[in-house]
């Protein structure tokens, strides 16, 4: 018996199968591209302004100052990179591969310098080690010598500034290298030990080369923060690109010269990133198998244990314990450091700016991340990467790039209003809170976007599809399913942006409205006048806020 396929009913006609229509991209998804364009506007502004022919000020700077700025910036980056790589990689290897007394405490304590801004650390050490400080004073009292009759290292120098920066930035290297060491194949390490190599040779010839991507990534972050620093190098009398931009903007009142210096600094950062990428080439640094037992720490005893404890404790002492202890001591000597009329107004300014910036950054980051997740496209992916570029650019560069177009708009609008209506509008955007928040967003949106994107990758797309099958609209599926699951990532993004905004100094100094000071600006101004005791309370508040992301990192480390 044969089965024949049923044909169409009599009198009916065959209709072609309808092809599903492609869903139109909503306007809010296209808005993500507009956000990326606005975030990139300051960087484009710097390049456009720098392309204009240089005036007399730029010619003078290029002949007299620019070589010193370049040499100092490069030397500072080399010294900080070498010291941070040494402290971070060695301490990470010791806590990952060795077991010694106090290891669990030091493993967490090594993160504490992340809460200490470099300029605050520098201010504390200058107060301690300068000629009029307590260390040299005690030395003169104990020996009977006078100044000039003994040798003491000059703290206000390029090596001194490099040590301060390395002492607070090495945790970037430590975090990445520790994760790399813990995930390395124990078979390779055991093979090295079997061939007669001790822990030092295994570290240098096997573990460290395998962790090269992590080491390079951590050092790249350290160098970007070093080139962006202003407060430390300015207080230590080291002239770098950031101090040159500040001097050209305020001292010479020459915007094109400041923009050209900013473009030069952007070029140095871009060169750094290209060198880091080219150094890796196409080589592979991961193990060829995942079937290996976890790394078993080696027990240390005697002098080896003492050396490991000293190697891990020294960075913590340099980067957190000594400067924080100095600030506490100075705060207690002031008398009544918590007087509201002295501290609270600056704290209120800082918290308000940081809170507004954090909320806006999380909202924009969520818009960018969900736009690419729900409506993936190469253009939106590229826009998200462009929006993240600000974190790799120093705050002084972003400040100049933000103020130049704002000033052009204000001047053009004021000229038109004068010519047509006979009234002056003044400065509507330049030197306002809105301009300062915009500069913060350009600088730190990449931090929020990275956190949100990381959180979304942990949410299975099938959950969104299930909500759609159950009749929910895309907006309802995001709001009822994905948003609650991404709440932790959104909160983390807000905390990171809040803390970074509280500590930001160069962009705040350049963009802030007249007579509007934050805690960071207040600390900088008082420390510049050698009044660190009065700045101690504000500095400690910044450090306490900086402990929030450290606590989050410790919690994440405990989970893994």
Describe the structure.
This protein has about 550 residues and is an all-alpha fold. The protein has helices spanning about 25-50, 55-65, 65-95, 105-110, 120-130, 135-145, 160-180, 185-195, 200-210, 210-230, 230-235, 240-250, 255-280, 300-335, 340-375, 380-385, 395-420, 435-455, 460-470, 475-485, 485-505, 505-510, 520-530, 530-560, and strands spanning about 100, 300. It has a two-stranded parallel ribbon. The radius of gyration is 28 Å and the shape is globular.
Provide the descriptors you would attach to this structure in a database record:
disordered N terminus, 2 strands, globular, mainly alpha, 24 helices
Per-chain topology:
Blueprint: H1 27-51, H2 56-64, H3 66-97, E1 98-99, H4 103-109, H5 118-129, H6 134-143, H7 158-182, H8 186-194, H9 199-210, H10 212-228, H11 231-235, H12 241-251, H13 255-280, E2 298-299, H14 302-334, H15 340-374, H16 378-387, H17 395-420, H18 433-457, H19 461-469, H20 474-485, H21 487-503, H22 506-511, H23 519-528, H24 532-559
Parallel strand pairs: 1-2
Helix pairs in contact: 1-13, 1-15, 1-16, 1-17, 3-7, 3-10, 3-14, 4-14, 5-7, 5-14, 7-10, 7-14, 8-9, 10-13, 12-13, 13-17, 14-24, 15-16, 15-18, 15-21, 17-18, 18-21, 19-20, 21-24, 23-24
């Amino acid at each position: 018996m044969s089965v024949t396929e049923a044909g169409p009913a009599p009198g009916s006609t065959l209709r072609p199968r309808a092809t599903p229509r492609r869903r139109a991209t909503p306007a809010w998804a296209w808005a993500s591209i507009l956000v990326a364009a606005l975030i990139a506007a300051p960087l484009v502004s710097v390049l456009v302004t720098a392309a204009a022919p240089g005036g007399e000020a730029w010619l003078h700077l290029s002949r007299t100052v620019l070589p010193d700025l370049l040499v100092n910036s490069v030397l500072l980056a080399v010294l900080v990179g070498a010291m941070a790589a040494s402290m971070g990689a060695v301490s990470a290897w010791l806590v990952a591969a060795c077991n010694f007394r106090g290891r669990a405490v030091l493993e967490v304590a090594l993160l504490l310098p992340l809460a200490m801004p470099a300029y605050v650390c520098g201010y504390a050490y200058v107060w301690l080690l300068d000629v009029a400080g307590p260390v040299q004073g005690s030395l003169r009292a104990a020996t009977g010598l006078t100044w000039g009759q003994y040798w003491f290292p000059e703290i206000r120098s390029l090596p001194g500034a490099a040590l301060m920066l390395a002492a607070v930035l090495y945790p970037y290297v430590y975090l990445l290298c520790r994760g790399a060491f813990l995930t390395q194949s124990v078979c390779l390490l055991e093979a090295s030990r079997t061939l007669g190599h001790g822990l030092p040779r295994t570290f240098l010839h096997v573990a460290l080369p395998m962790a090269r991507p992590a080491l390079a990534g951590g050092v790249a972050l350290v160098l970007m923060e070093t080139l962006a620093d202003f407060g430390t190098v300015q207080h230590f009398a080291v002239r770098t690109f950031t101090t040159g931009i500040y001097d050209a903007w305020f001292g010479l009142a020459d915007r094109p010269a400041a923009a050209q210096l900013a473009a030069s600094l952007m070029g140095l950062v871009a060169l750094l990133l290209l060198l880091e990428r080219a150094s890796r080439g196409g080589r592979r640094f991961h193990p060829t198998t995942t079937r290996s037992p976890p790394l078993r720490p080696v027990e240390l005893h005697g002098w080896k244990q003492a050396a490991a404890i000293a190697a891990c404790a020294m960075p913590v002492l340099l980067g957190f314990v000594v400067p924080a202890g100095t600030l506490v001591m100075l705060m207690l000597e002031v008398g009544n450091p918590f007087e509201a009329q002295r501290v609270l107004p600056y704290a209120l300014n800082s918290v308000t700016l940081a809170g507004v910036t954090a909320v806006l950054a999380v909202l924009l980051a969520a818009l960018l991340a969900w736009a690419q997740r729900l409506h993936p496209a190469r253009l939106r992916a590229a826009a998200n990467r462009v929006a993240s570029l600000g974190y790799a650019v120093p705050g002084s560069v972003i400040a100049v790039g933000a103020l130049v177009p704002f000033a052009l708009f204000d001047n053009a609008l004021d000229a038109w209003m004068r010519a047509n209506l006979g009234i002056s509008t003044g400065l509507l955007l330049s030197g306002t809170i809105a301009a300062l928040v915009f500069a913060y967003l350009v600088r730190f949106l990449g931090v929020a976007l990275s956190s949100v994107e990381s959180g979304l990758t942990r949410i299975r797309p099938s959950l969104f599809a299930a909500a759609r099958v159950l009749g929910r609209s895309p907006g309802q599926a995001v709001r009822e399913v994905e948003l609650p699951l991404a709440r932790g990532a959104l909160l983390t993004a807000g905390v990171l942006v809040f803390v970074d905004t509280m500590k930001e100094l160069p962009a705040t100094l350049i963009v802030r409205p007249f007579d509007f000071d934050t805690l960071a600006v207040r600390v900088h101004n008082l420390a510049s006048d050698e009044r660190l005791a009065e700045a101690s309370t504000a500095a400690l508040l910044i450090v306490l806020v900086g402990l929030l992301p450290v606590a989050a990192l410790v919690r994440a480390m405990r989970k893994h």
